[in-house]
């Protein structure tokens, strides 16, 4: 698999290093800073191209046309968006992944067709929010096709407690993929699996269905 990484900072460097550990991967890093390019070349070999990952000319040289995946991990959300958008629209790259520094930009990236977004800030906030006494639906990951991986903790007053998954009136295109007990042990759900107090439910749903799913699992409806 040919993977192009836009951004040769720490994230891009370590991502490339891990990918190169698998012989089936061909990796190229695009980086503007000369010092970073030199360091990458010294430590990882001839896998770095100095240039602007937002420019079509650089993309042509890098071989975006044959890339299986483009991963944009610069420190600038706008650059990451442009790199992934051009990769999709001009070069028909099958899969794009963008790092998001500001979680508020996640919806924009989704609307503009970026396949997957990753936000370290959002992940940390999600961990903090899990400790708060709320029934908030926490988005973990934006998937392709407008889907999201989300989690919600079942409160003690929820009507779904004791109900089997097969009996839940989940919104359209929503699937429960994992249940985590209060002690931290995971349970793979079956249609007969019942919901317990303070279970953390991990599900895949469409973004527009998040509120309905939250209402079902917390007992609002």
Written account of the structure:
It is a single chain. With 221 residues, the chain is an alpha/beta fold. It folds into two domains: 2-118, 3-Layer(aba) Sandwich (Rossmann fold); 123-218, Regulator of K+ conductance, C-terminal domain (Alpha-Beta Plaits, 2-Layer Sandwich). Helix content is 31%, strand content 24%. The strands form two sheets. A six-stranded parallel beta sheet has the order 3-2-1-4-5-6, sandwiched between helices. Helix 2 links the parallel strand 2 and strand 3. The longest helix has 13 residues, at 77-89. The N and C termini lie far apart (46 Å). The mean pLDDT is 86.
Question: Would you kindly provide a brief summary of this structure?
Answer:
This protein is an alpha/beta fold and 221 residues long. The protein contains seven helices and eleven strands. The protein has two domains: 2-118, NAD(P)-binding Rossmann-like Domain (Rossmann fold, 3-Layer(aba) Sandwich), CATH 3.40.50; 123-218, Regulator of K+ conductance, C-terminal domain (Alpha-Beta Plaits).
Key descriptive features of the protein:
single chain; 221 residues; alpha/beta; Rossmann fold; Alpha-Beta Plaits; six-stranded parallel sheet; five-stranded antiparallel sheet; 11 strands; 31% helix
Reconstruct the topology from this structure.
Layout (H helix, E strand, L loop, with lengths): L1 E5 L3 H11 L5 E6 L2 H11 L3 E3 L5 H7 L6 E4 L4 H13 L5 E5 L6 H6 L4 E3 L1 H11 L7 E5 L4 E7 L21 E6 L5 E2 L12 E7 L3 H9 L3
Parallel strand pairs: 1-2, 1-4, 2-3, 4-5, 5-6
Antiparallel strand pairs: 7-8, 8-11, 9-10, 9-11
């Amino acid at each position: 698999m040919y993977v192009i990484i836009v951004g040769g900072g720490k994230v891009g460097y370590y991502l490339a290093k891990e990918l190169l550990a698998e012989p089936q991967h061909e990796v190229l890093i695009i980086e503007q800073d000369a010092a970073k390019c030199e360091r990458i070349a010294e430590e990882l070999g001839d896998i770095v191209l100095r240039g602007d990952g937002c420019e079509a000319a650089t993309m042509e040289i890098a071989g975006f046309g044959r890339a299986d995946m483009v991963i944009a991990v610069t420190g600038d959300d706008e650059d990451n968006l442009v790199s992934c958008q051009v990769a999709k629209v001009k070069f028909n790259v099958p899969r794009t992944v963008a790092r998001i520094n500001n979680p508020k930009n996640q919806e924009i990236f989704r609307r503009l067709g970026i396949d997957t977004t990753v936000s370290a800030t959002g992940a940390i906030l999600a961990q903090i929010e899990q400790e708060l006494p709320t029934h908030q639906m926490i988005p973990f990951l934006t998937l392709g096709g407008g889907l999201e991986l989300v989690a919600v903790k079942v409160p003690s007053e929820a009507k779904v407690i004791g109900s089997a998954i097969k009996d839940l009136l989940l919104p359209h295109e929503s699937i429960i993929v994992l249940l985590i007990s209060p002690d931290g042990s995971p349970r793979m759900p079956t249609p007969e699996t019942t919901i317990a107090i303070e279970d953390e439910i991990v599900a895949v749903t469409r973004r527009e269905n998040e509120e309905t799913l939250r209402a079902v699992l917390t007992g609002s409806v």
